[in-house]
Write a structure and sequence with these properties.
Blueprint lengths: L1 E6 L2 E4 L4 E9 L6 E7 L6 E7 L4 E3 L7 E6 L4 E6 L8 E8 L11 E4 L3 E6 L1
Parallel strand pairs: 2-11
Antiparallel strand pairs: 1-3, 3-8, 4-5, 4-9, 5-6, 7-8, 9-10, 9-11
Length: 123
C-alpha cells in the first residue's frame, strides 16, 4: 500500500549534476528510513544514502562529499542531489522505504521499492 516513484535520471557528462526525486504515496506515515540504492550491470545492489524520519543522514564512502540526501515531508518526497558525477556512478538508482524503527536499517529491511531510474555518466 506504499508506492515510490523515482524521477530525474538521465545522461550527464562527468563532473555534472543531477537531482533525483522519489515521490511517495499511500500509507507512508510509518516509514522510518528512506534510502537510495544503486545497481550497475553485473554488480550487487548497494546503499548510496539514507535519511531517517528525524532527518539523520548516512552516506556510502564512495559518494560522501558529492551527494546529498534530503526530504520534503510536505511534498512526501525524498531527493538525492548528485554533484561531481563520475562514470562509475552509472547505475539504476532505486528509492526505498523501511519500517525499521531502529537507527539503522539493512538493505533487506527495506520494505518498499521504486522501479528505478537510470543514471548514465559519460566521460
Amino acid at each position: 500500500q506504499v508506492q515510490l516513484v523515482e524521477s530525474g535520471g538521465g545522461l550527464v557528462q562527468a563532473g555534472g549534476s543531477l537531482r533525483l526525486s522519489c515521490a511517495a504515496s499511500g500509507n507512508i506515515f510509518r516509514i522510518i528510513h528512506m534510502g537510495w540504492f544503486r545497481q550497475a550491470p553485473g554488480k550487487q545492489r548497494e546503499l548510496v544514502a539514507s535519511i531517517t524520519a528525524g532527518g539523520s543522514t548516512s552516506y556510502a564512502n564512495f559518494v560522501r562529499g558529492r551527494f546529498a540526501i534530503s526530504r520534503d515531508n510536505a511534498k512526501n518526497t525524498v531527493y538525492l542531489q548528485m554533484n561531481s558525477l563520475k562514470p562509475e556512478d552509472t547505475a539504476v538508482y532505486f528509492c526505498a522505504g523501511s519500517l525499521n524503527y531502529r537507527d539503522y536499517a539493512a538493505q533487506n529491511e527495506y520494505n518498499y521499492w521504486g522501479q528505478g531510474t537510470q543514471v548514465t555518466v559519460s566521460s
